[in-house]
Amino acid sequence: MALDKIDEAILEILLENSKLGNKEIALQVGLTITPTYERIKRLEKLGYIQSYTIKVDKEKLGKNLQVFCQVSLKEHNLELLQIFEKNVVDLPEVASCYHIAGDYDYALIIEVNGMSEYENFLKFKLAAIPYISNVQSSFVMSKIKE
After folding, report:
1. What topology does CATH give the domain 65-139?
2. For 109-124, how does the pLDDT look when each residue is reduced to its tens digit (9 = 90+)?
3. Helix 33-45 and helix 5-16, axial crossing angle in degrees, nearest 10
4. Would you give the distance in Å from CA 71 to the centre of its chain?
């Protein structure tokens, strides 16, 4: 289903601030509350809106270091991929995990308090996952756009 300009405006407003109520959104898109509510519910039902989230200050939560960690596995078969994925999703330091194509098999975003915590994560958690052959780490110096 194609979206019209009002649907697109509603999505943009919610992307900016998902905490806004239907009344505030209705005022911005030029509708009354009921049709705005019905459009939001339709966008949810159709899967355009999948969830509502918050943005937190990671430094205040003690996550002062973000690391892009690329991982290669020794072998490529379904069982080993599933073993890696099952293990990595249980690690609280892993904020995101992507199965990728290219020189590496997985890209992880790791969030920790500092370098010593990342070192412990590598030594005692990531290295404990079987069949990892190579890990490449890149450290975030500053965030330009999220």
Report:
1. Alpha-Beta Plaits (3.30.70)
2. 999 999 999 999 999 9
3. 80
4. 18
